[in-house]
């Protein structure tokens, strides 16, 4: 495994564990200051349509989302578990940037102990390797379906 691949894999695993452990305050820290996080249906992505279910442009928007989730939003209490394929990593057009493609499945468990598939799709990442640790410059979550069966509250 080359260094870029290992760095991307480490970033993705730390991200998934933070979300799964409900450490949402850590979530924005996985991105560059101008990083972008999008959740988009597969059909819109394939057609180049811009409509997203979530589109956070910049860490400040992500931090606002976390504050909102913690203090204002009402959503089902749940526990997520990410299952991911190893990433396919390739150089991007910029020095120190790589692209990664990773398939995922998120299982969601509710308070009654019922676990079911919540979201499936692919992460399309642009990862910045230039700093002391890798960060997402972009994370596009392409859902296999147009939406999710439950309220989409926490990051995927």
From TrEMBL:
Belongs to the bacterial ring-hydroxylating dioxygenase beta subunit family. It comes from Pseudacidovorax intermedius. InterPro entries: NTF2-like_dom_sf (IPR032710), Rng_hydr_dOase-bsu (IPR000391), SnoaL-like (IPR037401). Pfam families: SnoaL_4 (PF13577). GO terms for molecular function: oxidoreductase activity. Residues 4-125 form the SnoaL-like domain. Keywords: Oxidoreductase. This is SnoaL-like domain-containing protein.
């Amino acid at each position: 495994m080359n260094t870029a691949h290992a760095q991307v894999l480490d970033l993705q695993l730390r991200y998934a564990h933070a979300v799964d452990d409900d450490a949402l305050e850590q979530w924005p820290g996985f991105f560059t200051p101008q990083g972008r996080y999008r959740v988009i249906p597969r059909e819109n992505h394939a057609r180049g349509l811009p409509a997203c279910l979530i589109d956070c442009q910049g860490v400040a928007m992500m931090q606002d989302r976390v504050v909102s989730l913690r203090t204002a939003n009402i959503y089902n209490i749940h526990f997520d578990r990410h299952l991911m394929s190893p990433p396919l990593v390739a150089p991007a057009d910029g020095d120190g940037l790589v692209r990664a493609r990773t398939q995922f499945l998120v299982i969601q468990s509710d308070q009654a102990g019922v676990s079911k598939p919540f979201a499936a799709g692919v992460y399309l990442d642009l990862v910045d390797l230039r700093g002391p640790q890798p960060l997402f410059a972009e994370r596009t979550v392409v859902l296999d379906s147009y939406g999710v069966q439950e309220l989409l509250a926490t990051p995927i």
